[in-house]
Write a sequence for this structure.
């Protein structure tokens, strides 16, 4: 009994020390769910962490919340995709040194049978109009993310205010929404990166509309303004920005493939 | 059926192979819960004993409040602590949002009422002769209360374990205050929520099985203690 | 001769009901008092007062001719001279030895002296070699004896006993009677309550009879 309790005590102490014993530098980055759910960060960050001898703590939320965390000074760097919101973030003095990192595009995915017939549509707005007319199920991110922002823009240009039981606001990340749309055989707007990562095993939904200029999806990385928040790890944040926009990071992004297909594209220099 | 069986096999394989993500999430969960319960014990046990042995006006009200706090929704605790430790909050200086420390604070708040309440009911059910006996044998007030705690050690241990059971299984605080950071603040519960959303059922299930095992152990312990 | 206890105008009531009303009573050291009276006559209340556990509602209690101040700091040194044995005593979880040594440890008595006193006390109550027994596994009579040993180990000035012989078997009762009767000779003042009309006569000493909280007669 005594030996057992000694042993338990030792194990307990050891486990408890696990969480507090990390003395390395930690950089907090808020990002969108798509960069995490697509699996890119798992290959992009470790080389940087080794090089800079630090840990990058990734808080994956919607773009809107990711920027909010930056505005509150709760993170050191943000990595998002909603160009208009990003520019406002910088203009309002919360961020500095915004850099383009990569891009992909949005696609409208849905059940293979395409009940609303959106494959024939000429523009994304028209595709959404067809879905609304048929009242086919559509799952919206509903989380103020970059994808959600883009979706709202599209509804606006279609002149429709989506409402009704066919329009579901999930309030979740990209991955969960694709999972939900798969379960309910519904349409949704997804970024190509996350969709590619899910295609096959996790979803049987198909890309039904793609390739329009308005569906372009650029990702940017921004350091939180050290003048506004003196506590942020600005130097480390700048190192990360240099890394992902530099040759090594760009090569990792370009080479990253999910199910044999590229997920993100880099800008030609 | 085929899907479930297949997922289950993969989940078991993940556990048996000591998959890195699984092990880290389990260790983080247990570690954070242990720290929380340590602090909750330091605060909750004395509070429970104090309320239990003293008579004061408003005691019933205090007990009612303690009971209510036991059912405190985890997301409310998360929200409140978030507001306090965010950079914009009063303790923003510390910069501990999205760290294990933040989770420990939230889970401690969550566990204190449970530890205090269970301690309180143990004290209320204690033999009324314990303190007078200690006093007549020459103990001071503090020593007699210490003796009371010693006599009630199994009940108090049960209180602590009940608190542990609550925090290890909660997801609200861990998600909101920890941020579900891979390899840092990702716990069993946040990982389950995330992996299921991503369609990674096997990983979610693997963690779910471990969590159930931990819960089972905790309750087993609790049962043994309550029978003493 | 200086009194050990002196009660002057002591009043104690629960709500409206007066449970103790003693205008003048002096108890002297080295004696044995038997306290009798019907149920609810105030015997236990008086013992708790003398044990310095509960203060009176009115009046003055003197211990060795000094008025008792009812503050924790002032009470502790006095309480260490007085020990009360409950009617159905509570034994702490653990072995008999730790129970008997409990009060000794609090008084800073350690090592050989502690061992000696525990051994002696257990022998006195007729339980030699019971030190390692688990307290919870004792019979009623044995538990009563251990509790007595726990009190005697302290070598108190005053031993207050609440019906010490009520709940035990005949053999234990007779044995403890002998132990109690010998105490005043060893310098311990004994004040015990009893229901048994034969006790006062058999044990000798003085009789205090309470009726409805008041002193009825003293012999």
């Amino acid at each position: 009994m005594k030996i057992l309790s000694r042993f338990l005590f030792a194990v307990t102490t050891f486990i408890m020390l696990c969480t507090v014993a990390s003395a390395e530098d930690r950089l907090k980055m808020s990002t969108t769910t798509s960069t995490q759910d697509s699996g890119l960060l798992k290959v992009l960050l470790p080389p940087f962490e080794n090089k800079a001898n630090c840990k990058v703590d990734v808080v994956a939320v919607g773009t809107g919340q990711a920027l909010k965390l930056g505005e509150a000074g709760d993170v050191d760097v943000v990595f998002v995709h909603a160009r208009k919101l990003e520019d406002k973030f910088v203009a309002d003095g919360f961020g500095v040194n915004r850099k383009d990192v990569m891009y992909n595009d949005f696609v409208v995915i849905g059940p293979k049978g395409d009940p609303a017939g959106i494959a024939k549509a000429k523009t994304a707005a028209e595709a959404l109009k067809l879905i609304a007319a048929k009242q086919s199920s559509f799952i919206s991110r509903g989380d103020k993310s970059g994808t959600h922002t883009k979706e709202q823009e599209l509804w606006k240009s279609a002149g429709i205010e989506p409402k009704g039981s066919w329009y579901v606001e999930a309030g979740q990340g990209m991955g969960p929404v694709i999972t939900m749309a798969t379960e309910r055989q519904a349409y949704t707007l997804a970024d190509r990166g996350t969709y590619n990562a899910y295609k096959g095993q996790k979803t049987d939904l198909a890309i039904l509309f793609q390739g329009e200029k308005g569906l372009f999806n650029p990702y940017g990385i921004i350091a939180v303004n050290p003048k506004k928040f003196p506590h942020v790890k600005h130097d480390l944040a700048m190192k990360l920005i240099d890394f992902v926009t530099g040759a090594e990071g760009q090569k990792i992004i370009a080479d990253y493939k999910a199910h044999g297909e590229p997920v993100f594209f880099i800008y030609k220099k | 059926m085929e899907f479930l069986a297949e997922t289950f096999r993969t989940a078991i394989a993940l556990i048996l192979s000591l998959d890195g993500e699984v092990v880290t999430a389990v260790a983080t969960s247990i570690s954070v819960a242990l720290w929380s319960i340590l602090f909750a014990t330091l605060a909750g046990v004395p509070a429970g004993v104090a309320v239990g042995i003293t008579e004061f006006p408003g005691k019933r009200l205090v007990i009612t409040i303690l009971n209510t706090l036991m059912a405190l929704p985890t997301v409310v605790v998360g929200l409140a602590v978030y507001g306090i430790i965010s950079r914009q909050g009063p303790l923003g200086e510390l910069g501990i949002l999205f760290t294990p420390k933040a989770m420990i604070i939230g889970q401690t708040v969550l566990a204190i009422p449970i530890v205090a309440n269970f301690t309180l009911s143990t004290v209320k059910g204690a033999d009324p002769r314990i303190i007078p006996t200690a006093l007549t044998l020459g103990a001071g007030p503090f020593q007699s209360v210490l003796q009371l705690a010693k006599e009630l050690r199994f009940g108090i241990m049960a209180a602590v374990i009940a608190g542990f059971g609550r925090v290890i299984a909660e997801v609200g605080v861990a998600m909101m205050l920890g941020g579900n950071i891979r390899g840092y603040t990702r716990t069993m519960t946040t990982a389950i929520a995330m992996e299921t959303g991503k369609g990674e059922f096997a990983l979610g299930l693997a963690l779910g099985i471990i969590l159930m095992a931990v819960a089972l152990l905790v309750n087993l312990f609790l049962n043994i203690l309550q029978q003493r | 001769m200086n009194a050990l206890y002196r009660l002057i105008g002591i009043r104690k009531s629960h709500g409206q009901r007066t449970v103790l009303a003693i205008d003048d009573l002096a108890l002297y050291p080295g004696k044995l008092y038997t306290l009798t009276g019907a149920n609810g006559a105030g015997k236990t209340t008086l013992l708790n007062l003398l044990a310095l556990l509960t203060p009176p509602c009115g009046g003055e209690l003197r211990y060795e001719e000094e008025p008792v101040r009812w503050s924790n700091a002032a009470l502790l040194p006095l309480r260490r001279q007085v020990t009360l044995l409950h009617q159905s005593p509570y034994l702490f979880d653990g072995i008999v030895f730790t129970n008997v040594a409990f009060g000794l440890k609090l008084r800073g008595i350690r090592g050989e002296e502690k061992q000696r006193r525990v051994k002696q006390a257990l022998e006195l109550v007729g339980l030699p070699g019971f030190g390692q027994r688990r307290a919870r596994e004792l019979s009623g009579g044995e538990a009563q004896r251990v509790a007595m040993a726990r009190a005697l180990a302290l070598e108190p000035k005053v031993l207050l006993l609440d019906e010490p012989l009520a709940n035990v078997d005949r053999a234990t009762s007779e044995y403890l009677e002998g132990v109690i009767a010998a105490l005043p000779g060893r310098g311990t003042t004994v004040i015990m309550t009893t229901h048994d009309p034969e006790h006062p006569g058999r044990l000798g000493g003085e009789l205090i009879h309470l009726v409805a909280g008041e002193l009825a007669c003293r012999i």
